[in-house]
Amino acid sequence: MAVWLKLSLIVLCGCLSCWVGSVWAQPPLPGFAALSAGQYPLADRQLSQAIAHGKATAALYGNRCWVRLSLERYEEAIKDCSVALDLQPHEPETWLNRGLAYYRQGQSQAAIADFDQLLQQSPTDYRAYYNRGLAYLDLAQPEQAIADFQQALERLPATEIGAAVDLHTDRCMGELHRAQPGPAVSACSQALELQPSAARARYLRALAHWQLHQPQAAIADLRQACDAFAQAGATVQLDRARQLLQHWQQQSSLVAQAPRLQSKNWPGAVTYAMDLANCHDRSPLNELEFCCDRAFQQC
User: Fold this and answer.
1) pTM to 2 decimal places
2) What CA dihedral angle connects 178, 12, 172 and 150, to 10 degrees?
3) 225 — phi, psi (to 5°)?
4) Rounded to an integer, what is the distance from CA 8 to the centroid of its chain?
5) In 3D, which of 122, 84, 87, 88 has the Cα closest to residue 101?
6) Bridge partners, 4 (sequence order)
7) Which residues pair with 5 in a beta bridge?
8) Alpha carbon separation from 110 to 30, 99, 152, 295 (Å, rounded)
9) Minimal CA–CA distance to 298: which of 257, 268, 258, 274?
């Protein structure tokens, strides 16, 4: 199960995929059928009734934690998972789900501690490495995040193509966070080899190309990202990508005019034009905030 989490304005795909744990209790336990059918409010009621009637087992609390995580009731999910872990501390899914609830609440350090516990019990669980990597990225620790993404990739089953696309894409994000556009291009290219329609990978690779002063490649990727967002019906992402595309096209046009502007004795415009072309000292996650208005005013 994947969910999108807001990271920043510019990462309009904007978000990262989190791999959620599963329920670890089988039928005929209360709420299992509703939970399996995605009827989370009904599952929550059934599980709560069972717990209220004295069936306070680790399985019931663990499953209700999962349900409340799905309902975005993170504080309650954390409490339920904590009770389940008090009753059964050796259940990997509960550590995973509580860690994810902490992460979604913005408590990344607590999330990392839970993923650490999970890895002590299940050292090959690629989900723990991936989600811990996301938490490290949230704490602005891209080196640790990239290391965890690589660990997850090494343990990922070959059949999990979608998960591999997520991992390569978020590794690209980590490289952008540490201002390494070359490795970022490589990581996103690996994602796109697996899934050419991956809009977020295409978008992030466009940012990396722009950082490498490769405007034609950047604009080409961004156009394809716009097409992918349009095809997916992702209107918010599409609008933001189009806005960035317009900025880049304006910037590229202005830089191309630099010799003509200089001949007309408009040195200020040339300076700003060159600034627009040399964005390597600016975070790619804030690209939209860097507008070319001043350059055009100088013209």
Assistant:
1) 0.78
2) 100
3) -65, -40
4) 10
5) 84
6) 17
7) 16
8) 30, 7, 20, 46
9) 268
Give the pair of three-digit tokens for residue 114. 């839970």
Place of tokens 């304006």: 250
How many angstroms separate the Cα of 1 from the Cα of each of 22, 70, 111, 159? 9, 10, 18, 16
**Residue pair 71/64 in contact by the 8 Å Cβ criterion:** no
pLDDT of residue 43: 92
Concatenated DSSP letters of 112-152: HHHHHHHHHH-TT-HHHHHHHHHHHHHTT-HHHHHHHHHHH
Distance CA 79, CA 224 (A): 44
User: For residue range 47-63, what is the model confidence (pLDDT) as tens digits?
Assistant: 999 999 877 789 999 99
Q: Which residue has the tokens 């193509």?
A: 161
CA–CA gap between residue 140 and residue 36 (Å, rounded)? 36
Q: How confident is the model at residue 256, as a pLDDT?
A: 67
Q: Which of 7, 34, 14 is nearest to 204 (CA)?
A: 14
What digits encode the pLDDT tens for the residues 70-118?
999 999 999 999 999 999 999 999 999 999 999 999 999 999 999 999 9
**HSE-CB for 215 with a 13 A CA cutoff:** 18
Q: Angle, nearest 10°, between helix axes 199-211 and 161-177?
A: 30
As given in the structure block, the two tokens for residue 47 are 């599980």
For residue 108 the two structure tokens come to 């990344």
Query: Hey, what amino acid is at 203?
Result: Y
> Which among 204, 16, 237 has a CA at the least distance from the CA of 108?
16
Task: Give me 169's structure tokens.
Answer: 């894409």
